[in-house]
């Protein structure tokens, strides 16, 4: 069987980029390359989805996860100093631009497959020191273009945070465990690492029948199945702990009333995995 491919994720980049832009999380440089029609076409079924899913739609869930990750990054820096962040897939996210404007002492690496990395590099233009766009494939174990090769270029004395947003549910459970393990194994001995990545778990979707239909349609649009490979948050955290990560937790929107998230008080339909690693984990590469 051929290995899973990440090239089918990019069709969603314009939708998510448009959602973030329209919720104050964008940047003019990103706006210039967005195809907002992809977002507009789906708004009618999304309005219906909000009514059937207890008042929360896809856009609200996307903003919830994005802002939770932003808040967790800020907390990590407050506790452990300037960060080295690898955002993969970076897609058409403006997070790096926003975060580097607030934290010029951070290192920010926007990473994606070659075609998207080239598109993002062209859109952003010249970037300040310690902010760059590179081509990386999370499914590559070693060598040029792998996560291990990228981390080896960073400062081993500073924390590394992997931000993997909007990708994990495109892959089966074995592939996801491989991503978690390779990220842990890429860290230097004793180097602090943190992994932040959203995950839709089966228990949430079973409470929202229309959301299951939407995920099936989304899988068709991106040429592959959407996987709900863990039934509960506890199962997700246990699986990640088995890949070399420690202190694994999952954050839900209802856990963060202080953030003033959209659709506050509505059912949670996403979670953000949050795991730390002391470095040097012997994960599967």
Q: How would you concisely characterize the structure shown here?
A:
With 285 residues, this protein is α/β, with parallel strands linked by helices. It has 12 helices and 7 strands.
List keywords for this structure.
285 residues; 14% strand; disordered N terminus
Question: What is the approximate shape?
Answer: globular
**How many extended strands?**
7
Note poorly predicted spans.
Answer: 1-9, 217-223
Which class do the helix and strand fractions yield? alpha/beta
Structure description:
The chain has 285 residues and is α/β, with parallel strands linked by helices. Helix content is 40%, strand content 14%. It is built from twelve helices and seven strands. A seven-stranded mixed sheet has the order 3-2-1-4-5-7-6, with helices on both faces. Strand 4 (160-164), helix 9 and strand 5 form a beta-alpha-beta unit. It is globular and about 50 Å long. It starts with 12 loop residues before the first helix and ends in an 8-residue tail after the last strand. The model is unreliable at 1-9 and 217-223 (pLDDT under 50).
List the helices and strands and how they pair.
Layout: H1 13-21, H2 28-31, H3 37-40, H4 43-52, H5 58-80, E1 84-87, H6 95-102, E2 107-112, H7 114-124, E3 131-135, H8 147-151, E4 160-164, H9 173-186, E5 193-199, H10 202-206, H11 209-221, H12 233-241, E6 246-251, E7 271-277
Parallel strand pairs: 1-2, 1-4, 2-3, 4-5
Antiparallel strand pairs: 5-7, 6-7
């Amino acid at each position: 069987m051929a290995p899973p491919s990440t090239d089918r994720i990019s069709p969603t980049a314009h939708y998510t980029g448009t959602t973030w832009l329209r919720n104050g999380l964008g940047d003019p440089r990103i706006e210039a390359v967005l195809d907002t029609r992809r977002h507009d076409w789906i708004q009618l079924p999304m309005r219906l989805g909000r009514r059937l899913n207890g008042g929360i739609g896809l856009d609200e869930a996307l903003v919830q996860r994005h802002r939770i990750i932003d808040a967790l990054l800020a907390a990590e820096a407050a506790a452990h100093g300037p960060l080295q962040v690898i955002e993969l897939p970076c897609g058409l996210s403006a997070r790096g631009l926003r975060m580097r404007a607030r934290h010029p002492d951070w290192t920010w690496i926007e990473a994606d497959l070659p075609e998207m990395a080239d598109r993002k590099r062209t859109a952003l233009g010249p970037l300040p020191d310690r902010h760059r766009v590179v081509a990386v494939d999370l499914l590559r174990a070693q060598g040029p273009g792998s996560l291990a090769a990228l981390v080896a270029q960073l400062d081993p004395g500073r924390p590394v945070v992997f931000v993997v947003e909007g990708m994990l549910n495109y892959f089966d459970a074995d592939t996801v465990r491989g991503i978690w393990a390779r990220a842990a194994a890429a860290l230097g001995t004793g180097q602090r690492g943190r992994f932040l990545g959203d995950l839709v778990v089966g228990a949430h979707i079973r409470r929202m029948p229309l959301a299951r239909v939407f995920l099936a349609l989304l899988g068709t649009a991106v040429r592959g199945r959407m996987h709900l490979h863990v039934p509960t948050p506890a199962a997700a955290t246990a699986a990640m702990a088995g890949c070399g990560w420690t202190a694994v937790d999952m954050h839900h929107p209802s856990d963060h009333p202080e953030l003033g998230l959209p659709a506050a008080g509505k059912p949670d339909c996403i979670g953000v995995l949050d795991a730390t690693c002391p470095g040097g984990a012997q994960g599967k590469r």
